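Batch manifest, entry 17 of 40.
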Amino acid sequence: MLTATKDTMSYTLTASGKAARTYVLERSNTLGTGAWTEIRSVGPLTVDGPVRLTDPAPPVNAAFYRLRVTSP
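Output type: structure tokens
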């Protein structure tokens, strides 16, 4: 499960996390060939459970987010 919330000060993504995986929130201003910027990461997790990653300073205009998951 993946949910996202945005308020005036932050953007938060919540996902169901799995042990031994690392979760990275990335942002880009375009879906074209532009680079993705790492905003926050957590892991590797020691147990299964919710993962919450927040962008504390989202752009005023539109932005695109993705969650990158890596395993050992």
